[in-house]
Amino acid sequence: MQKDIHHKKFTSIVILTGAGISAESGIKTFRDEDGLWENHRVEDIASPEGFQRNPKMVYNFYNERRKQLLSNEVKPNRGHMALAQLENDFKGQTTLITQNVDDLHERAGSKSVLHMHGELLKMRCQFTNQVFLTKKSFDEKTACLCCHKPGALRPHIVWFGEVPFYMDDIQRVLEKCDLFLSIGTSGQVYPAAMFMQVARQQGALTIEINKDPTANSPLFDKTFHGKAGDILPDFISNFFA
Ligand code: OAD
User: Fold this and answer.
1) Where are the alpha helices (DSSP H) in 46-121?
2) I want to staple 105 with a disulfide (CB 3.0 to 4.6 A). Which of 97, 110, 136, 180 is the partner?
3) pLDDT digits over 142-201, tens only?
4) What's the pTM value of the predicted model, to 2 decimals?
5) Ligand 1 center from residue 183 Cα (angstroms)
6) What is the mean pLDDT of the chain?
7) What is the per-residue pLDDT across 5-50, written as a single tens digit (0 to 9) for each?
8) Which ligand 1 atom lies nearest to the CA of residue 227?
9) Which residue puts its alpha carbon closest to atom 25 of ligand 1?
């Protein structure tokens, strides 16, 4: 049965975004052809063990990504803008959960974004867990802003084997949402990959918007295949029509 998609029916929307929403802003996804993981071993640059083995390489990887994010070429695209409009216009509750570590949702105007995999523009002291904003590169020689020790600061990024942020908040909103949108994510990384099933078990309408079909596509109530920047503006306008 085709469920109707109209904003008046919904009170609580959860949106999960992944690398695909930022692809049209010039940021590489992870698993597409020429994706970030293609040229790197994930265990080298996205695990605590990799950081211990070769901190220089890990600092360098995130410093380069931060520089690119702050370069003039990268800016929010129509997909980010449409989601900010949804948050602004929708009378009920919206929660935007992103797996992305960029700040493009915020730059587009989204106000509350749960960065479950961390943020590129933040660094964290490994001893005190204090988090600091940074637009600059930092490495093993940088003195920590709280404990002053060199090498204490690490990227504020969730690596494989670490627990994502905001999991309690996320569980709470998933349990009461009536519309779940998954946008630009391959659904290969847990726990984000199972959010759709939690929402679905609560009776939420589940919609996937992704360039290509994913392994989870058959489980969604509705799927739209194409670029997020092409699909989302019309999708959001029709939602409020
Ligand atoms: P992936 O690279 O796994 O998947 C990106 C998805 O976006 C793919 O299914 C593409 O088909 C789709 N896509 C590409 N361009 C698109 C566009 N313009 N519009 C819509 N969809 C598009 O990235 P994620 O699913 O986000 O974690 O990866 C999840 C996590 O894996 C990341 O947060 C990262 C990585 O390991 C950490 O680093 C902790």
Assistant:
1) 48-53, 55-69, 78-89, 104-108
2) 110
3) 999 999 999 999 999 999 999 999 999 999 999 999 999 999 999 999 999 999 999 999
4) 0.96
5) 9
6) 94
7) 777 789 999 999 999 999 999 999 988 887 877 778 888 999 999 9
8) 19
9) 185
Residue 115, classed as helix, strand or coil, is strand
CA angle 63, 163, 157 (to 5 degrees): 10
Beta bridge partners of 79: none
Among residues 185, 241, 236, which one has the least CA distance to residue 16?
185
Order across the sheet with 113-115: list the strands: 113-115, 93-98, 12-17, 179-183, 205-210, 222-225
Cα 165 to Cα 7, 92, 123, distances in angstroms: 29, 24, 14
Residues 55/140, Cβ–Cβ less than 8 Å: yes
Residues whose beta carbon lies within 6 Å of some atom of ligand 1 = 18-20, 23-24, 29-32, 35, 46, 99, 117, 158, 184-186, 188-189, 210-212, 214, 227-228
